[in-house]
Design brief:
Elements: E1 6-9, E2 12-21, E3 24-34, E4 51-52, E5 64-67, E6 70-75, E7 78-83, H1 89-104, E8 118-127, E9 130-131, E10 140-153, E11 155-162, E12 165-168, E13 171-178, E14 181-193, E15 196-208, E16 211-223, E17 226-232, E18 235-238, E19 241-247, E20 250-253, E21 256-262, E22 265-268, E23 271-277, E24 280-283, E25 286-292, E26 295-298, E27 301-307, E28 310-321, E29 325-335, E30 338-346, E31 351-359, E32 362-371, E33 377-385, E34 388-389, E35 394-407, E36 416-428, E37 433-447, E38 464-466, E39 472-486
Parallel strand pairs: 8-10, 10-11, 10-12, 11-13, 12-14, 13-14, 14-15, 15-16, 16-17, 16-18, 17-19, 18-20, 19-21, 20-22, 21-23, 22-24, 23-25, 24-26, 25-27, 26-28, 27-28, 28-29
Antiparallel strand pairs: 1-2, 2-3, 3-4, 5-6, 6-7, 8-9, 30-31, 30-39, 31-32, 32-33, 33-35, 34-35, 35-36, 36-37, 37-39, 38-39
């Protein structure tokens, strides 16, 4: 198997660009390298796309060797180094896509138009070239093509049916259905394969029992296990994985979506892995992205390099937040992390301590405390907040916190929750220490036991309350807190 391709002209060497994936090199497209002035013309080696092991020295042409991440050309004691593409997530993904396309016979070369083919109504094939027209079927376009075991034709404008395998050299305009698999270059219509389908360009629909592989999709792919494409402008449904370099449509998958760039929407039962997301991501467990400029929702965990959009999860871990919001119970930001402790005294939480984490413009609040007025109550809560500088001495600190109350003796517990919207103003003694005063409004909700009274969470009388059914008690009111902040 050839390791790479090279041709030479007086001042330029053309070699095949390669992508490193662990110990494998994937040859993709041609790149041009300026030839050294003292480097003689190299012999020409003609290849198509291949995968090869770099350790297989006997696969290399005598004029070149492979060394770590370079191809070295040798000629008369002179050498020219050509660096291979840097190993990263995108190149790994490109290599996987290319490898699948190569094995499926999906060429990256431009497809010849089928206009120069002679149209014939029908052909029948047992096994190519055992056909009604022998090996000449590749020079015809058929309205009906039937292959008992396998067949190969030039093009189809109509219907092609195969018990096992159909292969069309140029294009299919209509329907191609195979008991096992179908392969064509240009598809305008539908492919249905018991195991899988392969095409360079799809304008329609691919239905594969196991997999669909193509270069560009404008339409729909349904794969029992996986769908693989360079570019998707439509819809992908995969049982296990959807793999695409760029998605401009919708992806639904049972386990994972793998993309170099997403401009559409991704839905994954477990994980979305994207180099760059400019669209919408939803994952049952986790989203993993290098850059996010859109929105991401994960049932548990978001891991992001640079965030410029919105993310929601139980845990978000981000390298840098350039803009946007990260909303999570646990927000960890490696660059620009905001951390604050607050010790407060309030009518609704007589003694409280809070920890705030995330970024300054949007952080998560964890708080615990106690009440000692009439009803002895433990208090805990969670919320979100923002801190914005007004001038050198004052900051504005709005927060929304949901507090839960229960008795300190853990007896006769009844559900009581109060949501407080606080408008805090911080006077800064210095960059770390400040004093905060925060008037607030609240909504209280309590489920009462028969004959019981709601907990008295504050000595401040509520503005209005409702207890029409004697079971559910709700109220609106105001409160105030003062405290120290330390960051």
């Amino acid at each position: 198997m050839s390791a790479f391709g090279q041709t030479a002209v007086p001042d330029t060497v053309y070699v095949y660009e390669t992508i490193t994936v662990y110990d494998t090199i994937v040859v993709r497209d041609t790149v041009r390298v300026k030839k050294a002035a003292n480097m003689p013309t190299l012999p020409s080696v003609s290849i198509d796309h291949h995968i090869f092991e770099p350790s297989a020295e006997n696969n290399l042409p005598p004029a070149a060797t492979f060394s770590e991440n370079r191809i070295i050309f040798h000629e008369n004691n002179h050498q020219k180094n050509v660096k291979i593409m840097k190993l990263n997530t995108a190149s790994k993904l490109s290599a996987v896509i290319l490898a699948a396309q190569t094995m499926a016979g999906v060429s990256a070369q431009d497809t010849q138009p089928a206009d120069d083919l002679t149209t014939f109504p029908m052909q029948f094939s047992i096994v190519y070239p055992m056909t009604t027209q022998g090996s000449q079927t590749v020079n015809y376009r058929y309205n009906v093509s039937f292959n008992l075991f396998s067949g190969k034709v030039g093009a189809v404008k109509g219907v092609e049916i195969g018990t096992f395998f159909n292969q069309t050299e140029r294009d299919v305009q209509g329907v191609q259905t195979g008991g096992l698999a179908n392969r064509t270059n240009e598809l305008t219509g539908a492919q249905v394969g018991g195991l899988g389908n392969a095409a360079k360009t799809v304008n329609g629909i691919q239905l594969g029992g196991l997999a669909n592989i193509c270069k560009d999709v404008t339409g729909v792919q349904f794969g029992g296990i996986t769908n693989i494409a360079d570019s998707t402008k439509g819809l992908q449904f995969g049982g296990i994985a959807n793999i695409s370099k760029e998605t401009n449509g919708l992806q639904f998958v049972g386990i994972t979506n793998l993309n170099e760039r997403t401009k559409g929407m991704q839905f994954a039962g477990i994980v979305n892995v994207t180099e760059r997301s400019d669209g919408f991501q939803f994952a049952g467990i986790t989203n993993i992205s290098k850059e996010v400029s859109g929105a991401g929702f994960a049932g548990i965990f978001n891991r992001t390099g640079t965030l410029r959009g919105f993310q929601f999860g139980i845990v978000n871990v981000i390298d840098t937040v350039e803009s946007g919001i990260s909303m999570a119970i646990i927000n960890i930001v490696k660059k620009g992390f905001y951390s604050e402790w607050a010790f407060s005294f309030a009518d609704y939480q007589n003694v409280g301590v809070s920890y705030k984490m995330g970024i300054q413009r949007f952080y998560t609040i964890f708080t615990v405390g106690a009440n000692f007025i009439k009803d002895n109550l433990w208090v805990y809560g969670i919320g979100f907040g923002n801190r914005t500088a007004l001038n050198n001495r004052f900051d504005f600190q709005p927060e929304i916190v949901s507090y839960q109350y229960f008795p300190t003796d853990f007896k006769n517990i009844q559900y009581t929750s109060a949501i407080y919207l606080k408008f805090g103003f911080v006077y800064k003694f210095n960059e770390k220490l400040g004093i905060v005063v925060a008037p607030s409004v609240f909504h209280l909700n309590s489920d009462l036991k028969e004959g019981s009274q709601p907990y008295q969470i504050s000595p401040v009388k509520e503005i209005h309350s409702w207890n029409s059914d004697r079971i559910n008690y709700t109220a609106l009111g105001v409160g105030i807190s003062v405290g120290l902040t330390l960051r």
